[in-house]
Amino acid sequence: MKRLGIADVGIYQPRYGLEPSVASSIGAGATLRFAAPDEDSLTMSWEALNRLNQPLDANEIILAAPMDGLEPRALSAHLRGTGMFPGPTTMTTLHPQSELAEFLHVASRAGKNAVGLLVDRIRERDPLNAPTGDRAIALSFGQPRLVEVAAHVSLPGLTYDRWQESDERAGRDPRFVEDRLIAHEGKDVLDLLRKEAPENSQEMLGAVVTVGTKLKGASIAQRWDIPNVWIANPAATEPGDGSASQLIFALQQLATAGPGSSVALINLGWGASGVLLVAGPSIAELAEAFTTSEPTGTYNMRTWLHGHRSPYTANPWTSGSELSREAADLLGLVGSQCIACRNVIFPASKVCEHCGAFDLNPISLNRTGTVITHSIDELYGAPDTTVQMVVVRLDHGGQFYGQAVQGLPTWLEINQPCQLALRRLHTGSGLPHYYWKVDTHD
Amino acid sequence: MTDMLTLAVTEDSEDIVVIGAASSKFGEFFDLGYEDLVREATFAALADAQLSLDDIDAAWLGTAFSYTYSDQGNAGTSLAEPLGLHGIPVTRVAAYCASGLDAIRQATMALRAGACDVALVVGAEKMRDVGPRGSLVMQHVDRGHPIISKGRTAPGMFGLVAERYNAVYGSPRDAMTAVAMKNHQYGSLNPRAHFQKPVTVDQVEKAPRLSGLIGLLDACPTTDGASAVVLTRASNAGGRRTATIRGVAMSNDMGYFTAQYSSRFDFLGFESTRSAANLAYAQAGITDPFHEIDVAEVHDCFTITEVVNYEDLGFCERGEGREFVTGGVSGPGGELPVNTSGGLKACGHPIGATGVRMMVDVVDQVWGRAGDRQVVGARTGLAHALGGPGSLACVAIVSANEGS
Questions:
Q1: Rg, Å, chain A Cα set
Q2: Which is it for the CA torsion A426, A428, A433, A436, positive or negative?
Q3: Is B349 a catalytic site residue?
Q4: pLDDT digits (tens, 9 = 90+) for A207-228
Q5: B299 in active site
Q6: Chain B residues within 8 A of A372 when measuring between CB atoms
């Protein structure tokens, strides 16, 4: 694999937590954060892309995300609809549990015109086995300002196959030697990474290892002769068994250590692979990206299991053709501006509501604004959810009306600065619907 | 055909008058259908006018949301069929909650134009035939634009006004409670009202929340009901008791799904009400509504709506609606009693019927037959209906004639 530069990184960590009883039932860490009920891979991707520091100039998306029945092309269509991408985009979709090495290998072939999206949304796979948090990360490939993927290795491996035969309830079966096997296969991967990029292996901080069993990282580290081995397995709370979590954890180590430091990411199981990440000169830019906020909302067991499929979203009527006509302007936040009186109207209109003129030009609206009024509605989402409906005067013109995002710590108030965020509304006629909701201002 | 229908229309017979007005009882009627209610209101109004169905040569039907309730009222057929009104034009009018009053406006115009001589206007809605899933609230959740305004409910739309009013002028809570108590008090005296019991401060303010400041007892109910009026030109009245429609106007000022997106909406009142009132006042020659109007039926879908209606209709200055009700001006014995029927709050709100029901109640007042709710000396009344989230409004001014 040729070396791959990562020029920009956007990390999104959602704000929902679990009630302690739920966390304890499913064995998840109490500090983990999860997507709110109105978030999914599409909206988390949008959030991650939105956190990139530089304008996107990509024409290809490489995606590894659980899609919950949503077609990947719907994700690319919505992201394009919001104006995220300057032009047409192609998309390469990987399995949501693709290994990071595979993901980055595909990215290396796409090169600097690609953006990568990795989403961990564990609940979609198994809500009763969600030991790690939800996260999304967007990677803009190009110059290795932040990180360089210096080496890539892929080998056949069978560790997961052997581990699977043991019965955990009876304790670990001494006949199997997975510790030693894993150590053996993992060291093969690590040695090959070192061989491929010897100049970047000197300051290796350690290896983040994803493997389907419980291991003692310190013991493996000693065998591999590196300072740290962080095990990402189902019982751990960090760094997680999702690729996004694994990568974010590795980036955090690099940002702490500074330019030139390196971390190996190794996946062991049915197949063994690894990559070596090297911190670039601007890695410090990421220092603020890893902060985890206090949870703004919590799931109880019922809402955790139902998520956005709660009974109130009972398949409302929709019109695909109406959406098709209007989506570009609605998702793109394109309104109309009266040539005569400069009034800005949203949704786009063919007549000025102020002066009655018919000559209007399209205008892109700001996503930021101020709350004019609101109402906390107990009927719309009953019995599951209280929905706050908010009217926002957008900065530089136009007015917006819609739901507040779920998971705000407090209701939005009149005169409060706010911004619009892409969220899932409901599923209607079998189609998930997305639109802008109102969030607090960053 | 009666003799009066053979009279020629002359230049000085342009005034359009009400000669008969009646409502069915409003409420929840599992034993009565849409057609039963339409027939009950119509025959009562015809009896009031001392006419028969044969005298009607055009009819209008106000029904707002026919799709919600088995398509009843989706065309004039829904009135023609139960009444056997064959061979004459019967027109369905839909203007959200102002459907009934707009039907009256259209009948008035047809009479003025000489297109008919005696017009029947019926407003009807049968809302209690469906369970919660088919209710108006849920229909708005389930239908509508695929994404715009999704999450909007009727209480939520007016909750936005209550919150803004609170931020700009101070809490409207006491005034909203006063509106609820006043209208339920009036409703307790109205044998046609859906709810006929007074409510207390505690009941209003501790009721379950619907949206923000709006609780269950700040909201009108959904109701079954029908109302009817018979109109003709004054010169055709034939010595009957009459009330002249001195002005009737409608104004469309906001979109339906997009009203809250409009920067013209200040969330402190409704431009459509102000526009329609100004037009109706101009037609009626009214320059000082507070002093020239004796009684009013206004659109109190939610208590905050009545508060801002006082201001929009020019009964008081903007921001003074709270004192208008808490000071007793709009209550029994006040200078301008409002919603002496009990309003939408207590009568209930069969949507298409409401505007016609308002006309019936205003006519009852100016004809001096409002019983325990009678405003002494009332001769001029106002009816006001608001449609959608303030999208449109209708206002009518009616005065009793000498001898009525």
A1: 23
A2: negative
A3: yes
A4: 998 876 666 778 888 889 999 9
A5: no
A6: 164, 267
